[in-house]
């Protein structure tokens, strides 16, 4: 199961450390019957503290290709990025393509 957290603005969460603290509390309360993953969409939320929270709960970081995230190639060599025995990846956007560009490119035109 992937818990996807959309991009946080500074108004939503001014300091990543607060998110990590809340995330740690949330993850520690999950029943240990599934494999869990967390997907974040803020590149500044990738410090060691984030990976420590995941690792301490045996929860995987979701490698995601998204507008505000480093490329998959850049995420892979991050120290201690593999935080659980399982992993997940979501190749959502090609590097350099925004979400809005993808929507326009792949939208099905309305019937005439």
Write down the secondary-structure element order.
EHEHEHEH
Number of helices: 4
- The chain-level mean pLDDT equals 89
- Name the poorly predicted regions: none
Number of structural units classed as domains? 1
Question: Could you explain how this protein is built, in words?
Answer:
With 112 residues, the protein is an alpha/beta fold. It has one domain (2-106). Helix content is 30%, strand content 12%. The protein has four helices and four strands. It has a four-stranded parallel β-sheet. Strand 2, helix 2 and strand 3 form a beta-alpha-beta unit. Helix 1 packs parallel to helix 2. The longest helix is centred in the first third of the chain and has 13 residues, at 16-28. The radius of gyration is 16 Å and the shape is globular. The termini are far apart. 19% of the residues are buried. The model has no long low-confidence stretch (mean pLDDT 89).
SSE diagram, text form:
Elements: E1 2-4, H1 16-28, E2 37-39, H2 48-56, E3 60-64, H3 72-75, E4 88-90, H4 99-106
Parallel strand pairs: 1-2, 2-3, 3-4
Helix pairs in contact: 1-2
Q: How would you summarize this macromolecular structure in one to three sentences?
A:
30% of the residues lie in helices and 12% in strands. By secondary structure, it is an alpha/beta fold. It is globular, with a radius of gyration of 16 Å.
Q: Which labels suit this protein?
A:
alpha/beta, 4 helices, 4 strands, globular
